[in-house]
Amino acid sequence: MDILWQLVIIDDGSTDETPAYLHALSQEYPNILAISVDHRGQSPCRNLGLHHAKADTVSYLDSDDEYKPDHLAQRWQYLQSHPEVDVLHGGIQLVGPPHSRFVADVENPDNVISVEECIIGGTFFGKRNAFLSVGGWVGQYGEDIRLYERLSPRFTVHKVDFPTYIYHRDTKDSVCSEQLKRFHR
Q: Which of 24, 58, 64, 71 has the fewest CB atoms found within 10 Å of its own CB?
């Protein structure tokens, strides 16, 4: 039996019952692969998922964000109708108070920029081989722009404007929130 889709879940150090729940879930559903690791961080976990993925097309979803119901379908349809495109990004709906719409600039952390100006890593959707061929995710803060900068000279990368990725900026301990606090005390 062919699996039409696969969900790879990387649990990065949960201390509750999450690992047991994910193990049971993966035992029940053959298209779910759950891997528990001990606090590796976002880029290593995304790379681990990328290496375990079996599909030609991959997408990312951070634990504090969500997809609208048609997120995957819209992006898949876009790639099907634009076969020259290798990777998509963009299309966010921001959730959070007004001050959360700003982050520390990767290039100059003493400045803040609007999230709308950023490349949001969770919105990447594209050909697995493109991500693998540039070495996947590197670093912690700004890893999404660094990946984009490695992808865009070699592959066709399009920004989409349909807001199907729900980007929660109301999470206190997100990487962006912590970075902003660090530079603006």
A: 24
The torsion defined by the Cα of 156, 162, 164 and 170, in degrees rounded to 10, comes to 100
- Contact by Cβ (8 Å): 36, 47: no
What region, left, alpha or beta, does residue 141 occupy, with left being phi > 0 and alpha being psi -120 to 50 degrees? Answer: beta
Alpha helix segments (H runs only) across 10-122? 18-28, 42-52, 71-81
CA distance 103 to 179: 8
* The pTM of the whole model exceeds 0.90: no
The domain limits of the chain are 1-39, 55-183
Q: Which fold has domain 55-183?
A: Spore Coat Polysaccharide Biosynthesis Protein SpsA; Chain A (3.90.550)
Summarised one tens digit per residue, pLDDT across range 116-132 is: 889 999 999 999 999 99
